[in-house]
UniProtKB/TrEMBL annotation:
Residues 23-232 form the Aminoglycoside phosphotransferase domain. Keywords: Kinase, Transferase. The keyword Ribosomal protein does not apply. It comes from Tepidamorphus gemmatus. One of its GO terms (cellular component) is cytoplasm. This is Thiamine kinase-like enzyme.
Length: 292
């Protein structure tokens, strides 16, 4: 699969001559390559629509272009169905420990705010909404249809999701990135870049905030800072509880994403281990939520 993707990346019509795509690690949805051409560096993302994950490439492209115009993501230079070429950013791809550094976290939050507030002003054409509880219900149906080894868990997970959805309550709507894993953040020393817009869509801001915290192991004090800084007001008990419910939902979605990937992805990645890791984190967050 990787070799076929490499051949496709090499054959794209934008290159000035023969190129040698070099695989980039870290991708668990696409196959990614770095390409050097005419003195410039590019990233080639090879991947078709993934209906089981509600990933639609027209939506990714619209979000990526709007984010580039906003100045928080690299520009695309070429697109065709199943292939996206963007500028390569020289910088440090973050790990969760990097995000937990308070000084860097304070540089990341303005990027999230610009995503939420400014990207929608530059969007063109149809784009999707990302509602985590719909995603969870759809994942459950996909897992049942696919005979997943996790089928016996699904009724309990869906009951929990319904309680979390009720706890979240009515929401404001922003344009979310919806996949704030540390590997989707790059620090070039001067600015923070946000990449990989596969799951972008209109959503509650609480989802990105909860995802940023849960995916990167932020401390309770950092989560309190995050909420107060984002909303620019003291954190109420009501907001704290609604945020905690969405944080649990973020972890549940990541867990079920991995469960679905176990039976539907052909990429070389240990999805079973990723499922176990996220299930453990989800259960810990859910226990903490139950104590609120």
């Amino acid at each position: 699969m990787i070799e076929l993707a490499r051949q496709r990346a090499a054959a794209l019509p934008i290159w000035s001559g023969p190129v040698d795509p070099v695989p980039l690690g870290g991708g668990i949805t696409n196959v990614n390559f770095r390409v050097e051409d005419a003195g410039r560096s590019f990233v080639v993302r090879i991947g078709d629509d993934i209906p089981v994950h509600q990933v639609m490439r027209f939506n990714e492209l619209a979000a990526a272009r709007a984010a580039a115009e906003t100045g928080i993501s690299p520009r695309d230079v070429y697109w065709e169905p199943g292939a996206l070429v963007i500028e390569f950013i020289e910088g440090r791809t973050l790990a969760d420990a990097d995000v937990r550094d308070q000084a860097r976290l304070e540089r990341i939050l303005p990027v999230v705010l610009r995503c939420h507030r400014d990207v929608p002003k530059r969007l063109r054409g149809p784009v999707l909404m990302f509602w985590v509880f719909h995603v969870v219900r759809d994942y459950a149906a996909t897992l049942r249809d696919g005979g997943s080894r996790h089928t016996d868990r699904l009724a309990g997970l869906l009951d929990t999701a319904e309680r979390l959805e009720q706890a979240v309550g009515p929401v404001d709507i922003v344009f979310g990135h919806n996949d704030l894993l540390p590997g989707n953040l790059i620090d070039d020393g001067a600015r923070i870049w946000l990449i990989d817009w596969d799951y972008a869509g209109f959503n509650s801001p609480l989802f990105d905030l909860g995802g940023l915290a849960s995916n990167n192991g932020l401390s309770a004090a950092q989560e309190e800072w995050l909420l107060e800084a984002y909303f620019d007001r003291p954190v109420t008990d009501d907001l704290r509880r609604r945020y905690a419910a969405m944080k649990c939902a973020s972890l549940l979605r990541e867990t079920m994403w991995s469960m679905v990937s176990e039976i539907h992805s052909a990429l070389d990645f240990d999805y079973a281990a990723y499922t176990a890791e996220n299930l453990k984190r989800f259960e810990a967050a859910l226990a903490a939520f139950g104590e609120m």
